[in-house]
Amino acid sequence: MIRKILAAAALLAAFGHAFAAVDVNTANEDAIRGIKGIGPARAKAILDERSAHGPYKDAADLGKRVKGLGGHTVERLQAEGLSVGPANAQPARAVPALAAPAKAGAQQPATVAVKK
Questions:
Q1: Sign of the Cα pseudo-torsion (47, 50, 55, 58, in order)
Q2: C or N: which end of the chain has fewer Cβ atoms within 10 Å?
Q3: pLDDT per residue as tens digits for the range 56-81
Q4: In a domain, 100, yes or no
């Protein structure tokens, strides 16, 4: 019985990890490094290319622009949770901890926390 519970918990954890996609056009270095197969050097290369030449249009564009990322590597990274969102996406910005209270009716910016 305990083995079944542990197996179910492991299965749920694996599926939960698989659905945590990281958008390469908006993610910071820590989020990109959280993808299996991306280390500090590759994450830096992805971010440097993005900041120098703008967001990636699609997975093929990512593979062309970043040295060391070919078609098969990009496919494998996508299977690990890397995604390429729309090229007009704005990078996520940190919200200060002591922000002023919002005015009534004012829209708050959406924030996303990536936990690995």
A1: negative
A2: N
A3: 999 999 999 999 888 899 999 999 99
A4: no
Write the DSSP assignment of 95-116 as a string of letters: PPTTPPPPPTTPPPPP------
Task: Give dist(CA 25, CA 91) in Å, integer.
Answer: 7
Residues 6+ apart with CB under 8 A from 20: 81, 114, 116
In a domain, 52, yes or no: yes
59 in a structural domain = yes
Backbone angles phi, psi at 37, to 5 degrees: 105, -5
pLDDT of 95 strictly over 80: no
Matching residue, tokens 């249009």:
57
CA distances (Å), 90 to each of 18, 54, 103, in order?
24, 10, 24
If one counts the domains in the chain, the total is 1
Per DSSP, helices labelled H in the chain are 2-18, 29-33, 40-53, 59-65, 71-79
